[in-house]
Amino acid sequence: MKKLFIVLACAALFASAAFAKSTAFKSTLSYYSFPILKVLDSRDAYVIIYQKNKIGTGSTVIPKKWSLPTQGEAIKLKIRSVRNQNEAYMSVYKKDGEFYRVVLNMPMNKHSPIWGLVDQRKTLEGTDKETLEDLEF
Question: Which residues of the chain fall below pLDDT 50?
Fold first, then answer.
């Protein structure tokens, strides 16, 4: 009985080694999150004012066209609804060190104090960009 158990254990070990997948290629996905202080809406983009890790604020422009699906590319902008403006944050995902996606978690009610408007007479720079620049921490 012991011999049969040992033979079955060895067979299972060799079978699992034969069917194991190679993990030579691993993609690294990392993310950084920042609290959102204000979201300014414009015709073509969102201007996000966020809290830096230490002291101060930063801002970035995120084109609205990133939320639309394109052939062969992943969606670069996802928006998730949260109830309270104090829960609003932005997560920037990087895949293999390159920009992959930004997720905005914010109240969708435009009457929330977190929302504002950009002067429509002004043109924003960065509404046609393809990737998000490295944000300041």
Answer: none
